[in-house]
Amino acid sequence: MQFLKSSIGRKVLMAITGFSMFLFAITHLLGNSSIFGWLPGGINAYAHHLHSMPSPVIWGFRLVLLVFVCIHIWFGIQLTIENRAGGSQQYAVKAFQKVTFASDNMIWTGLLILAFILYHLAHFTFQVVSPETAALSNLDVSGNPNVMGMVVAAFQNIGITLVYAIAMVAIFLHLYHGIQSFFQTMGWNNDRTISAISGSGKLIAFAIFIGYLAIPLTILVRILK
Fold first, then answer.
1. I need a surface site. Which of 55, 94, 103, 193 has the fewest CB within 10 A?
2. Cα angle for residues 10, 15, 16 (degrees, 5° grid)
3. At 17, which CATH number?
């Protein structure tokens, strides 16, 4: 428990949980990108595959992810308050990062991402947002839930697409700093690697941003139907 009382210990846990959610974001993007047809059966087949997994596996994964999210948020808020009060301990390694808009607003982009996750769950998982599009999730010709029809109908609404676009900007900014911060917290950053890590982190964050944003935008402009 002494480990959790130190700012360094909490930063390490934030880094680990953040990295786990980063891996989930990449996996989720790969699955969602099946809407472009690279997977036989498209996103409907992908959704069917997920829902056909045993319930204990699905709910166990969701529970672990929820715990990680809660730890990340709780310690993030704690450390932000301590940092701004001037009472936090320093990193165990030299601070190589410069203060940027992304680093200075991690708490706000994080809270915005949390709000988006709740909205996203209400939208596509619990289907309480835009219930008229939820009706389009009825079975397709293959007997799978018609996720494709529901997603396309949702993102033809410019308001919903705008919400997702703003959320993607928040995710980009959070990852923009978060990827670099992970290596710094773990003590894997130094004068020789800082440029490569910083550049790679920005590139990965931008790729994820474009990947997620491509889905609602291509639907909105009727490229994907």
1. 55
2. 100
3. 1.20.1300
